[in-house]
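User: Sorry, folds how?
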Amino acid sequence: MRRSLLILTALSLLLGSPALAGEQAVDESSCPPPEITHAYDTEELRVHVKLPASGCPPSEHHMFMVSASITRFDDIGPTDSIDRSVMCGPFPAAEDHDPEYPPAQYFCDVEVALDHPPVETIKYDIDVGYPGATSPRNRTVILACSSDDETAACDE
């Protein structure tokens, strides 16, 4: 995950954001956090991240990266992990659209899955990196999951 965050930070500096480029200050609330959903069954934990990009100035007219990682922890520490990053954008700004039509809604999606043993009681960390209005952001979801080869469930 550190590698993904470093890449995200480097890209935001290279590609620029309005706040860094000396343009008008951006309200952090204009860039909503991603929706993070997960599905856990007896074979894998699958995570889907959906980041709204519409109305967020750093995603308008700029390329940006969204990353997601899953780390599996037992009592001793991390036992397995996987991460995925996608490059998104650039998306048009609301003012780029014909005023007679509502502006389109844009999203950036990333999906990642981690296989697991059919029987386990384990903890998973889901880490998501994405651009904020003024700097890179990160969200973490922690799951306690259990599978008995026939049923599987997680609690946040």
About this structure: The chain has one helix and eight strands. The first strand starts at residue 35 and ends at 40. The CA atoms of residues 12 and 64 lie 7 Å apart.
